[in-house]
Design a protein that fits this description.
Helix content is about 75%, strand content about 0%. The protein is mainly alpha-helical. It is elongated.
């Protein structure tokens, strides 16, 4: 019974959920575009900070990464 139930289609239905008009859904999507963009910006920035911290830790272990970082900094300046 357990294995036969694994391949069944699952649905999360809420019979008490009220119907929401499409115009309200569209309005909410329009109003949250800035929040979504801000979230993506914060996520990208945190990811870059995380990578920078990890790179510093790795550079302590591997000197070839120091050369890579210096080359990247020179490329950014040019």
């Amino acid at each position: 019974m357990y294995y036969s139930g694994l391949h069944m289609e699952k649905s999360n239905d809420n019979p008490m959920k009220p119907h929401i008009r499409q115009e309200i859904i569209d309005m909410v999507r329009r109003n949250f575009t800035r929040e979504i963009e801000f979230y993506q910006f914060c996520r990208q920035r945190l990811h870059k900070q995380y990578l920078a911290l990890k790179l510093n830790d790795l550079m302590r272990m591997d000197d070839s990464l120091v050369n890579l970082k210096q080359a990247n900094e020179l490329a950014i300046r040019d």
